Amino acid sequence: MAIIRKSEILRRYNAAQTTLLEEANERRWAAVSLQKAFESFSLSEHYDIFLSHAYSDARICMQIRSMLIEKGYSVYVDWIEDEHLDRGKVSEHTATVLRNRMNNCSSLIYLTSDSAEKSVWMSWELGYMDARTGRVSVAPIIEDDEEFDGREYLGLYPYLDLTGDSFYIHRGVGSWVTFGDWMQGEKPK
Fold it and tell me: How far is CA 5 from CA 12, 13, 57, 70, 171, in A?
């Protein structure tokens, strides 16, 4: 099994020389009126994947998002799609927007890392999507010299595995399914 190594994802991110992160940050900090943001906001837009992550893992998130988009999946990332949200000020509005987005997503990938352990939102997103769809996968992002120990509740879920340029969903040794088949409802065998 090929757990996602942080160095490999960052290498791919740097090799792609993408400017998406810079553009997203520029848009995020630009003076955008709330009225304009709400005019472009669509509660009905559907996504295949809700990518749950800690913002400090933004480069990793962007690379995994790009790789999934290359495979033909639509991926929701909050600070890209809903840049009008104020992450420094948690509110009912923020929870409502995220809940509506999750209601329009087929699955959730939970990027777990040292940073994720400090996130106040990620556990909430994981529980919400597990109850709503049951289609949740954990993506351990670890350093080259680490093993994935996980946290107790994360062991309930299958994990995302990157082998070459392909994603798989694993439940354990010898129990896996392609990511595409998982998205169609198949479970690791």
Answer: 11, 12, 13, 19, 18
Contact 142, 3 (CB under 8 A): yes
Q: Give 154-185 pLDDT, tens digit per residue.
A: 888 999 988 888 999 998 888 999 999 999 99
